[in-house]
Amino acid sequence: MMTNLHPILESTKFKFVLFLAAFLTLFYGYELDRRTNYPPQSVHSWRQADGAAQALNYYQNNLKFWKPGVLNVIANNHHTVGEFPIFYWLAAVLYKIFGVQEWVLKTIHLMVFFIGIYHLFKLTDALLENTVAALAIALLPFTTPVIAFYSLNYLPNVPALGLAFSGWYYFYKYVIHSKLKDWYICTAIFVLIGLLKPTILIAWVAIMVLYQIDVLRGSFFKNQPPIFQQKWKMLPSFFIVAIAVTAWRIWSEQYNVAANSKYFFLDTIMPIWDMDTLSRQTVTGWLRNYGLPIHAFTPTSLQILGIILLLNFILIKKQNKILFSILILNILGIGAVILLWYQQLMVHDYYYIEWMVVPISMLISLFYVFKQLNIKYLSAFMSVLMVGFLLKNAWHTKGEMFHRYDQNGDFYTAYNFSLFKTPELQQFFKGLGISERDTVLSVPDASPNVSLYWLRLRGFTNWNAGKYKQFTPYEGHITSYYVDEIIKNHGCKYLILSNLKCQEADTLRPYRKDLIGVFDSGVYVYRLKKGHP
User: Fold this and answer.
1) What is the DSSP-derived secondary structure letter of residue 408?
2) pLDDT tens digit string along 281-314?
3) In what order do the strands lie in the sheet with 439-443?
């Protein structure tokens, strides 16, 4: 009976169904199906809305790819750019078919991630010849809160990580079959990764260093068969990735300078050595006590990963040289990224996403050693433990996902839920004669795009206030000078006040004379005119 089942159990279709079933179990277990149409909200709604606003801007700007922007009138216009906007543009194309639906961009990002971890599953299964272990390792990223939360979201970080796994898969295919087609696909994937999130290029850097080691054929690799069979044909690929990333950086910087906006462009590192002792201790304490054990792995899970790393070094003589080299290079790469952007690690949980390449490398290397040891039942026993580890992390992630989306919780205290009623709001604005081309002032909102995206309108928020001519993030209060300037110089037509009890309401009292509509007893719309108040 088992003999008859074996071809089925080993078939690609069965393994895909198995992987899909496991993925969907986690997806529905986290209740992500209920959140496919959620607008930007909860943790880092600011950064989420920036991404969503870029897709909406493309839609409203007739899909002009080389005219990226947001909804906030950041400078003299709404033009600005950060990462390569291919997914935002693609979402806007689909908006033309389905209408502006939240699930469109979120599903694009989720699908890219899903394909990536499925490629990781295929890669790991081929290496380990252990489907259970491969399944658990490939799904491990999806059992961390930070990746589960941003997988169905508006940020490109998780899909970029998924692309890195796809890149690994095609690199593995090249190593096994020596087909340049696989190498070129690998190169193209890493070009896209570099355009989206350059820090995730650490996986490409590891391949590049491996190439150099293979060419030099040092003592460590002297008895190892050549990894790169067509060395000189492959060499241009490394320059192609570097040229593409550099060209995009130059173009985007020039675009932002022309638009008088550097909002998205983080053009400098924020390293640990530029911090004073107190700041460094604050970030370190936050990471140790809250960041890692809440957003990534529980303290127990972190200890287990530490043991796994230690075992890799204890068993170094049994290691596969290629896998172990990739592990070491990934550790060094992530270590460099952490040190170079250490100041950003407090609160910004999405900076931890690319770190996932290290636990994955650790597990693949260790399980490959278990396979080579060929000790009866060892791989099976460790696979069972790995599944238990996966389930433990998934349970933690489920609880954290509930916390992040608890509308009675910490992340929602300042929200006006009337703004979430997007279809009704659109009809309300249409009835008032307000179009998507009109410029508005949305208050209160300390972010550039959150409330504007909820409203589906362009304009200004508190973020622009204060020294707004310099267009730097400033969480000051609205002033009469600021309002007069945006009316006079930017044709701001409407004031949308979503909290009458906010501190700015009194400052805006002179501008609240021409009330033209109230939505859901919580959103007040006033007409602004030159010469106000």
Assistant:
1) T
2) 998 898 888 888 888 888 899 999 999 999 999 9
3) 458-460, 439-443, 494-497, 523-527, 515-519
Burial category of 68 from C-beta neighbours within 10 Å (exposed 0-12, middle 13-18, buried 19 and up):
buried
Q: What are the helix (H) ranges across 222-377?
A: 231-258, 277-286, 299-314, 321-340, 357-373
In 355-478, where does DSSP find H-type helix? 357-373, 378-404, 422-432, 450-455
Q: Which structure tokens are listed for 270?
A: 């924020």
**Half-sphere exposure of residue 100, counting CA atoms within 13 Å on the CB side?**
20
Residues 5-27: tens digit of each pLDDT: 556 667 788 899 999 999 999 99
Residues 262 and 336: their CA atoms lie apart, in Å, by 25
Q: Which of 317, 123, 324 is nearest to 213 (CA)?
A: 324
Number of neighbouring beta carbons within 10 Å of residue 152 = 21
Question: d(Cα 530, Cα 533) in Å, to the nearest integer?
Answer: 8
Task: Specify the pTM.
Answer: 0.93
Return the DSSP state at 40. S
Pairing of the two strands 458-460 and 439-443? parallel
Q: Which residue has the tokens 């919580």?
A: 522
Task: Tokens for 14, please give them.
Answer: 């069965």
Token code pair at residue 243? 């040229």
Q: Which two tokens stand for residue 181?
A: 């087609």
Contact predicate 152/142, CB 8 Å? no
Neighbours of 307 (CB within 10 A): 10
DSSP symbols for 45-104: HHHHHHHHHHHHHHHHTTT-TT--B-SB--SSSSB---S--HHHHHHHHHHHHH-S-HHH
CA distance 284 to 290: 10
AA letter at 232: W
Tokens 């599944």 appear where? 387
Enumerate the H helices of 99-201 as residue ranges.
Answer: 102-128, 131-139, 145-151, 157-177, 180-196
Q: Taking a C-beta distance cutoff of 8 angstroms, is the pair 283, 342 a contact?
A: yes
Give tens-digit pLDDT for 67-82. Answer: 999 999 986 788 889 8
Render pLDDT for 420-436 as a digit per residue (tens, 0 to 9). 999 999 999 999 999 98
| Tokens coding 144 | 């961390």
pLDDT band at 186 (very low <50, low <70, confident <90, very high): very high
> In angstroms, how far is CA 134 from the centroid of its own chain?
24
Q: State percent of the chain over pLDDT 90.
A: 61
